[in-house]
Amino acid sequence: TLHALLFDVDGTLADTERDGHRPAFNQAFADAGLDWHWDVTLYGKLLAVTGGKERIKHYIDHYRPDYRKPAHFDELVADLHQAKTRHYATLAARGGIPMRPGVKRLLVEARAAGLRLAIATTTTPENVTVLLEHSLGSGTQEWFEVIAAGDIVPVKKPAPDIYHFTLEKMELQPADCLAFEDSENGLRASLGAGLKTLVTVNDYTLDHDFTGAAVVLSDLGESGVPNRVLAGPDLGQPFV
Ligand code: XBP
Ligand code: MG
Description:
Blueprint: E1 4-7, H1 17-31, H2 40-46, H3 52-63, H4 73-93, H5 103-112, E2 116-121, H6 125-136, E3 146-149, H7 161-170, E4 177-181, H8 184-192, E5 196-200, E6 215-217, E7 229-231
The structure holds xylulose-1,5-bisphosphate and magnesium ion (MG).
Magnesium ion binds at residues 8, 10-12, 182-183, 186.
């Protein structure tokens, strides 16, 4: 039986990447006097790697062969990433990153139905709390029994570790839960933990491979047009 809903954040609860994380990275690079700039298309490719620090290192290794790493490169990356987190928080605190359509209604109804809620994400914990506070509503962090985020586990998605951590904390079995994801990396993580998974796509993840998902939806409804089942039962039909 279903006891709990487990949510990814980036791309699932909110479209955080293109106009949230991406400009925050770019601002941090510019502040540091670096000529690194991630446009919308390049950022889509960089999303193959989860985790901001991991993404910066991947960019240097694969897109900037000219760059000579300084002796303390890991510290530089950590400093850049801290600056990026501050910029992201400023943006989110201005209400600049709204929840995706249908998300708030689903959470409210799930709570009313007595379901337990949790978050399992690769993003930095501060990013989650500021986003919930300003886009979902004041005090809504309390809706989530566990907020598992960032470096709390050594390996990020597509590894299942963050979901294992969440299940262990809640003392739940995978069969008790439904996971919500938006990306192939996220789905690999949830499936790796044995979780039934509902996928809602976004512009960056539309063409990902969602083999193994219980259902793939355009969105959770309330977007102004009926949502669609993109893969799974009742193909093409509105879901809610
Ligand atoms: C989210 C991510 C994160 C954010 C940046 O993936 O990949 O890296 O882009 O977060 P998922 P930080 O939705 O699969 O959890 O910069 O805070 O690491
Ligand atoms: Mg995601």
